[in-house]
Amino acid sequence: MVRVQLSVNINKYALVRNSRGHDTPNLLDAADAVLAAGAHGITVHPRRDQRHVLYSDLVPLAAHLASKHPGVELNIECENHSEIVDQVVALRPAQCTLVPVRPGEVTSDHGYRFPEDNAELAPTIERLHRVGTRVSLFVDCDPGPVAGAVDAGADRVELYTGPYAWAWGKPDQEIARAAMFATAEAAARAGLSVNAGHDLDRHNLIGLRGLPGLREVSIGHAQICRALEVGTQRSVRELLAAL
């Protein structure tokens, strides 16, 4: 049985740091702390406006993980834009999660469309594969088109779990959960492994148990919010227990 990996997104640590213009909290220390608590990987999502993780953070973070935490996977989320993709290709992280970006969005709020986006995605995925980087594509929980990610060359899809997370504890919880499971099943049938992320926390994470093909969950906002209440160690361990 494959153990589901927890990759902690440390963007919010960078956001707090940037708000004061200094180096506190230090991003490398943040990575050390969540890994010491048991997380399996680190995720960052640099954006072109650099409102949290900066481009200048990428090389030091990758080098730090390689030297101090060999075997720990770095997952870089980014839009399919050469300004960022060129840097990802140079770094050769274990995984790159490509995410569509809408100007002005507060956070990622939609997945790629298949086959409409395949022509633009395929060359980037090929570049990433050439340097040994696994590619995951951010997708909505819609089982119909998800198999189209195979034609783009993806290795995995990351299910956009926002609608599921918002439905947790409400009357439409099971409807949202069923859509998530149906999408994961369709991806698995197409030969794609499955990641999941967005607004997952220690409560709703339990509903992902048994999700077909699930390999990794990426959690950032809920982890740091909970850490403000109980500390980093406990916040990460609670997520691991829920998995």
Account of the 3D structure:
This protein has 243 residues and is an alpha/beta fold. Helix content is 44%, strand content 17%. The chain contains ten helices and eight strands. The protein has one domain: Alpha-Beta Barrel (TIM Barrel), CATH 3.20.20.70. Helix 4 links the parallel strand 3 (73-78) and strand 4 (95-98). It has helices at 11-20, 27-36, 55-68, 82-91, 118-130, 148-152, 162-167, 173-189, 221-230, 232-242, and strands at 5-9, 41-44, 73-78, 95-98, 134-139, 156-160, 193-197, 214-219. The longest helix has 17 residues, at 173-189. The chain has an eight-stranded parallel β-barrel, surrounded by six helices. Helix 9 (221-230) packs across helix 10. The mean pLDDT is 95.
Strand-helix topology:
Elements (H helix, E strand, L loop, with lengths): L4 E5 L1 H10 L6 H10 L4 E4 L10 H14 L4 E6 L3 H10 L3 E4 L19 H13 L3 E6 L8 H5 L3 E5 L1 H6 L5 H17 L3 E5 L16 E6 L1 H10 L1 H11 L1
Parallel strand pairs: 1-2, 1-8, 2-3, 3-4, 4-5, 5-6, 6-7, 7-8
In short:
The protein has helices at 11-20, 27-36, 55-68, 82-91, 118-130, 148-152, 162-167, 173-189, 221-230, 232-242, and strands at residues 5-9, 41-44, 73-78, 95-98, 134-139, 156-160, 193-197, 214-219. With 243 residues, it is α/β, with parallel strands linked by helices.
CATH superfamily: Aldolase class I
Write the CATH fold name.
TIM Barrel
Low-confidence stretches: none
Tell me what the CATH architecture is: Alpha-Beta Barrel
Report the order of strands and helices. EHHEHEHEHEHEHHEEHH
Structural class: alpha/beta
The total of helices stands at 10
Placed side by side, the strands forming the largest sheet appear as 1-2-3-4-5-6-7-8
Helix content: 40-55%
- pLDDT averaged over residues: 95
Q: Quick one: CATH class?
A: Alpha Beta
User: Per the principal axes of the C-alpha atoms, what is the gross shape?
Assistant: globular
Q: How many whole angstroms does the radius of gyration measure?
A: 17 Å
**Percent of residues in β-strands:** 15-25%
Question: How far do the termini sit from each other?
Answer: 13 Å
- What's the total count of β strands? 8
Largest sheet: number of strands, sense, barrel closure: 8 strands, parallel, barrel
* Number of separate structural domains: 1
